[in-house]
Amino acid sequence: MEKIKKNSSKIVFLTVIALVCSWSLLGNAGNLNPSAPPGPTMKTLDEVEARIPVQSQPNSPGALYSISESGSYYLTGNITADPNKHGIEITASDVTIDLNGYALIGPGMGVGSSGHGIYASGQQVTVVNGSMCNWRGNGIYLNGKSNQVRNIKAFNNGTGGISVKENSTVNNCVARGNSGNGITAIYECCVIDKCSAYENTGVGIDADQSCVISYSTAHDNSNGGIMVADNSLITYCTSNNNGSEGIDAGWGCTVSHCTTNGNSDTGIELGRGSTVRGCTAWGNGNDGISSSNGATVIGCTARNNTNDGIQSAYSLITNNTSYGNGTNWNLSSCTTPSGHNHPAP
Predict the structure, then answer these.
(1) I want to staple 264 with a disulfide (CB 3.0 to 4.6 A). Which of 123, 191, 285, 322 is the partner?
(2) Whole-prediction pTM value?
(3) CB atoms near residue 44 (< 10 Å)
């Protein structure tokens, strides 16, 4: 009995303590009623990314829409412009335009005397994600430095597809059926990557000095396929069935891992001091690979070309294969390590 009484006393004691603690906590609790209605917790779209509709911009004497302030802009629908006007004119620098998959449609590639789809005079201008067609001028003409064009289709324009200037980049674009060049990079240090240019009346891809053209294709252009000026790099490109040279590179250039086929003139034409490595030239209407003095031709294949397979002077020619051409080797005062070319020159 004594043990039962002691245990009962303990239980009563612990129960009293628990009740005291509970009342103490309840007494110290704050006011659970809100002091004001709850406010919004989500950011607005303008706070997340402040973008401006292009169609909200004013027109100008030369353009349907004129952008004069830096910022991020986007299209809300297709744009169709009048003759002799640009679709969009950009006079500011640091402008990005997202076409949102829409098209800028001109009045016709032969209508009027001027007018580009997008014309920009500023620097650091970026144009992405849309199409440009039927303009009297270029689909896109960016006249400043350090600009970017990405994911654009430019077709059936009157003087060219896409044109950029110094330190600019053109990536993942298509230029088709333009009167003039498909893609043009004027001045130095431009990059053209993962692009396609075909059925243009000029050169498919035409770049100035110290430029890089990579992983791109040029075919069925009325003039040459890919052309670059001095000290440029062309790598992992294909140039087929063009009306002149497949690849035409200036002095001090490097052409690597490219293929040229079925071009009306020479497959790969190189200036002085250039290097061609790991390339294939076959079925071209003139020479397969032709280089000026002081070049290096290494690890290439030339076959079934109408004239010379490989032609050069005062150059290093090694580890190449040339067969089935009008003349397999046309070499003057070249270094040709014994057993390194097949068949031997």
Answers:
(1) 285
(2) 0.86
(3) 8
- 3-state SS of 180-247 is CEEEEECCCCCEEECCEEECCCCCCEEECCCCEEECCEEECCCCCCEEECCCCEEECCEEECCCCCCE
Nearest to 56 by CA among 71, 37, 44: 71
Beta strands in 231-288 (DSSP E): 233-235, 238-240, 247-249, 254-256, 259-261, 268-270, 275-277, 280-282
pLDDT at 37: 60
Write out the H or E segment, with its range, that includes residue 8. Answer: helix 2-28
Domains, the chain, with CATH or none: 73-332 (2.160.20.10)
pLDDT tens digits, 83-112: 999 999 999 999 999 999 999 999 998 888
Element (H, E) at 103: strand 103-105
Q: Which residues pair with 256 in a beta bridge?
A: 235, 277
User: How far does CA 179 lie from the centroid of its chain?
Assistant: 20
Q: Contact, 126 vs 94, CB < 8 A?
A: no
Residue 19 phi, psi dihedral angles, 5° rounding: -65, -40
Q: Which two tokens stand for residue 11?
A: 């239980």
| pLDDT, tens digit, 9 for 90 and up, residues 248-300 | 999 999 999 999 999 999 999 999 999 999 999 999 999 999 999 999 999 99
The runs of H, that is alpha helices, within 29-70 are 45-48
